Amino acid sequence: FGNMALRYDLSAKLSLAVRTGTDYSSELRTYRRAYSTNRFRQGAYAEQNVSYLENNTDLLLSYRDIFNQWKYEITLGANRLDQEANSSFLQTLSLAQPGVYSLTNAASPIESFDTRGDKRINSLYGLIKLNYKDLLYVDITGRNDWSSALATPSSSEGASFFYPSISTGWILSEIIDLPESISFLKARLSWAQVGNDTDPYQTAPAFVAQTPFNSQPTFTAQDFIANTQLLPEKTSSYEIGLDARFYDDRLRIDATYYHAKTTNQIIALPVPISSGFNQQVINGGEVVSKGLELLLSYHWTRSKDFKWNTSLNFSHNKTKVLELQGDIDRLTLAYSRVYDNVNQTVWFQVEEGGEVGDLYGTGYLKNDNGDFIIDDNGRYIVDNNLKKLGNYNPDFVLGLSNQVNYKNWNARFLLDWRHGGQIVSRTLALAGVGGQLEETANRPEEGIIAQGVVNQGTTENPNWVANTQAISAESYYRQYYDRNHEENNVYNASYLKLRECSLGYSFKNLSWLQEEGQQLNVSVFGRNLFALSEIPHFDPEQLAVQGNRFVSGVEDMSYATSRSIGIRINIQL
C-alpha cells in the first residue's frame, strides 16, 4: 500500500491538488486433510490464491476568499476508483501418498475454481464551505458517481447516481451568555444522502466455468437471475450533535444522535430451485438505523511536566427492517456454510420488525418452557426448522483511553469493551464432536444424562419429567455439538480487550535537534494484547470467510487474528 499527494498554488487564492493511493493484499491459503479423516478417506489438499487491488485517485481545484464577513472555499473534484478482486482455487479430493500435501501428489483430477471481480467508479463532486465570523459554519456538497457495477453490456444509463449533503455548526458560546463554567458550546445539525452500488456482474447473465469433463471445459449459467434495471441503494440521514466543554476545556462532553433510512436496497431474493437458479437480484425493502455516540474526556492534570487525560467513547446502534419486498416474510441476506453443505449453514435473515444481523440455524426440539425434549433413548430430538440463534451486533461498545505524559516520558493504553451479540463457532462444533476440547473432558463410564425432559403424557396433554436416561459420553458430545445443528455452538461475543498499550521517551536535546520543537520519540507498543471473554478457543472478533467476503457472527477456523509488538521511531523536525 502507499499514497502520494501533490499540491500547486496557482495563486494566493487558487490551488490545484492531485492525490493517489494504492492498497494491495495477497494471500496463499492451503487446506489439508489427513488420510482416514471422516470425509476424506484418502486425504485431500487445496490451494487458494486470494488477491485484492484498489487504486484511488483524486483531482481537486480549490478557490478560497473572503466576502464581507464570510470566508468561503469552493472545491471542484474528480475521482476514479478501481477495484480488482481475484480468487484461484485448486483442489484434489484424494492423495496418492499420505502426509504429502502437494497438488503433484493428487490421486484424482485436480479441480480448478477461479473468480474475478473488477469494478470502476468515476465521480465528479463539489464542496462549498462557508464560515461567518468563526461563529457559523456551513458545508454543502454534491457528488455524482458512475459505477460499472450498475451498467449493463449495452447501456450505462443506470450507472449514474447523485447524492447531496448539508451540515451546519454554531458556536453558541460566542453568541449567547453562558455560565463561566462552560468554556465552549457548539451545536451541529446535518442532513445527507448517500448512494451505493453493488458487487460486479449483477446486471447481466454470465456463464461460469465448472469442473472439466473428459478433459474438456464445461460452463453453466450463474446461480442467480441478473437485473438489468438495478437501481442504486439510497440512504437519507440526519444527525444532531452537541459539543460542550467545561472548566477551561478540562472536561468535554460530545454527544451525537443519528437516524438513517435506506431504500432500494440491493438484495438477493431466493427463488424456487426448479427455475434453475437460487436467487434473483432485486431492489426492495426499507431499513432504519438509529444510534447514539458519546465522548467523555477529562484532563486530570495539565501541568508543564505532568499531563494525564482520560477519554471514554460509547456507541449504540440498532438497525431495524421496516419493510420487505412484496409479500416476503423473511429474506436471506447472506450465509456462512461449511463444505458447501446446506445442512451446515448459518443464515443471515431479516423479517419485518426484525434487526439486521439476526442469525438463524437449526437445533433440537424444545417444549413451551424452553426445555430440550429427550426421546426414550436419552437423545436429543432434531428440529430442522430454522430458529433465531441471536444477533451478531453488540448492544453497545465502550472504549477507555488513558494518555499520560511525564516530562519526556509518555504512556498510553486503550481498552475496548463490547457488550452483547452472539457468534456461532465451527471450532466448538468440529472439535467438540471430535472430543478435542476441554468442554468434552468429562467422560464418566456410566455415561452422561442429557439435560432435558421426557414426555410421559400425550401430545395433547404432555407430562414433562426430567430425563434420567444416560448415553455414552461419545454419543452425547457427537450429538450435542453436531455441526449440522448450530444451536449448541453459540457463544456470547462480549469481550473486554486491551486494544493497545505503548510506552515512549522523547529525546529533545540531541546535537542534531537544536531548533525549537524538534525531537526524537522512541516507543514500544503492543496491539491486541489480550482479551477477557467467555470464549476460550479463539479471538471474539474472529470472522468467517464465505467466497470472497468476510462474514461477521460466525467463526469458521479461518486465519487467527494477530498480536503485534513493535518499536516506533518518530522524528519531528
Primary descriptors:
single chain, 573 residues, mainly beta, 17-stranded antiparallel sheet, four-stranded antiparallel sheet, 2 helices, 3% helix, 60% strand
Tell me what the structure shows:
The chain is an all-beta fold and 573 residues long. 3% of the residues lie in helices and 60% in strands. The strands form eight sheets. It has a 17-stranded antiparallel beta sheet, with no helix packed on it. Strand 3 (42-67) and strand 4 (70-92) form a beta hairpin. It is globular and about 85 Å long. The two termini are 25 Å apart. The mean pLDDT is 90.
Q: How much of the polypeptide forms β-strand, as a percent range? A: over 45%
Can you summarize the main beta sheet? 17 strands, antiparallel
Content-based structural category:
mainly beta
Poorly predicted tracts of residues: none
- Overall form: globular
Count the beta strands.
35
On the 0-100 scale, what is the average pLDDT? 90
The tally of helices reads 2
Radius of gyration: 29 Å
Distance between the termini: 25 Å
Considering DSSP H and I runs of 4 or more, what fraction of the residues is helical?
under 10%
